[in-house]
Write a structure and sequence with these properties.
There is one protein chain. The chain is α/β, with parallel strands linked by helices. It has a single domain, classed as 3-Layer(aba) Sandwich (Rossmann fold), CATH 3.40.50.1820. Helix content is 31%, strand content 18%. It has six helices and eight strands; from the N terminus they run E-E-E-H-E-H-H-E-H-E-E-H-E-H. Strands 1-2-4-3-5-6-7-8 form an eight-stranded mixed sheet, with helices on both faces. The longest helix has 18 residues. It is globular. The N terminus is likely disordered. It is found in: Cytoplasm, Cytosol. One of its GO terms (molecular function) is hydrolase activity. Keywords: Cytoplasm. Belongs to the dienelactone hydrolase family.
């Protein structure tokens, strides 16, 4: 599935057989996947995908999990029609590919989605979660968007926003101990800067023995020893949202 020279750990256990319980909608210029809970609610969560895009079954599985926990969940295509990264792509071209997909340039799309959630779904309290590229986008939004109540950044790429830490809203950071893409030294520096500059509630948590993508990509039955941490990460994410939404 991935280049043998640099296999992506995210490819482990992709839920290619997962169809999703929600539906695809068009919100102005953006396509999005929406899943709603059985009971009506005024709470919603924007799900920001990783480099593999808004259609990745594993990400939709997480959106459905949020809906099962009482939230309207929406996963927009933040690449806005541009092609998502494929596991078969050559990693040599990754940096060039990434230049046209900046995690800090999603504000226009977020505003469109916030309007949709408010006007079409009756949402009054809105949070955001994101994975990898999307985790970095969460940090960006927590630094500047006044309309979001809280965020959960799952293995967000720290180097994108490492010099900024004055968060506006309570933010939970999930990291993996054995993440090849986010060294623990970067996590330590992030914690130090948050401690110095952050005036709102935040938490940084490192999950032992885990690799990049562990919360949303790795199927629980592939590595049984990881299952408790996968479940803990998901539970922690839901608990944080419950606390602040």
């Amino acid at each position: 599935m991935a280049n043998e020279s640099r296999p992506c750990p995210c490819d482990i256990g992709d839920r290619f057989d997962y169809g999703g319980r929600g539906q695809e909608v068009q919100v102005e210029h953006i396509k999005a996947y929406v899943c709603k809970p059985p009971a009506s609610t005024d709470k919603a969560v924007i799900v920001i995908h990783d480099i593999f895009g808004w259609q990745l079954p594993s990400t939709r599985y997480m959106a459905d999990m949020l809906a099962a926990n009482g939230y309207i969940a929406i996963c927009p295509d933040f690449f806005v029609g541009q092609e998502a990264w494929k596991p078969s792509n050559d990693w040599v071209s990754f940096d060039d590919w990434l230049k046209t997909r900046n995690a800090a340039k999603i504000d226009k799309e977020v505003d469109v989605i916030l309007k949709y959630l408010s006007e079409q779904c009756g949402a009054k309290k809105i949070g955001v979660i994101g994975f990898c590229w999307g985790g970095a986008a969460v940090q960006h939004l927590m630094l500047k968007n006044p309309h979001l109540k809280t965020g959960v950044s799952l293995y967000g790429v720290i180097r994108f926003f490492e010099d900024r830490s004055s968060l506006l809203h309570p933010t939970f950071f999930i990291f993996a101990e054995k993440d090849d893409y986010i060294p623990l030294e970067q996590v330590t520096v992030l914690e130090q800067k948050l401690k110095q500059n952050c005036k709102v509630d935040y938490q940084v948590k490192i999950y032992p023995g885990q690799t990049h993508g562990f919360v949303h990509r790795k199927r629980e039955d592939i590595n049984p020893q990881d299952k408790p941490y996968i479940e803990e990460g998901r539970k922690d994410m839901i608990n944080w949202l419950n606390k602040y939404l």
